[in-house]
Request: fold
Amino acid sequence: MADIPVIILAGGKGTRLQSVVSDRPKVLAEINGKPFLAYLLAQVVRHGFTQVIISTGYMAEQVEAALGHEFQGLRLAYSREDSPLGTGGGVRLAMQRKPAPLYMVLNGDSYCNSNLTQYVAWFRQRKHMASLLLARVDNTERYGRVETDSLGNVTSFVEKGCACSPGDINAGQYLLTPQSLHDPLGPAFSIEQEVFPLLLHKGLLGYSTKAEFIDIGTPESYASAASFFSTLGRK
Reply:
């Protein structure tokens, strides 16, 4: 895993969360005495990655001051946006800091207790351009749903609010090759809305898991995070 740089998307403003976390970026929202970003970094450490690039934007100085350049043996570097670039633009800018054939990309406002080692091994057997890790939830209405075929190819995306049944959702953990971002896109773009739909017929995989998932994007979900992480190790 040491040859795969990890990019963590930490540049978002977190508008929906500002009613309860207004003095810091959402990746530094405190949960059980630790910033949310620390839980993501600890997962990265457990699976043997050694280098992380944190893509920052909103209140970037706070993120860099809080984490520094090392976390439990991980080397931390930063890729700061001068203006908002969206998830895709942020990833592409971060890739320029550390050229590599494959990157693990993590959303900075969600956590999935997945086995990243198994995820990478599964992806490398298939030689595709990109993959989403999918989490099984009881109700996909809030998140939207990702449909796959029997071979793990993503076949469609179902919009939020359109499906109130169990299914797989995008868990915010991606494996991306540089080639996956080579389509002519502007400097600011979204991976979820602009890149993944383009890749549907070019090699987009979905790795389905039953791992526990949470996001902290709303006050309600953030309020449940303390209990989620307190009980995670006992499940």
Q: What stands out?
A: The two ends are 26 Å apart (CA to CA). Helices lie at 36-46, 60-67, 86-97, 116-124, 191-199, 219-223, 225-232. The chain has a mean pLDDT of 92. The first strand starts at residue 6 and ends at 10.
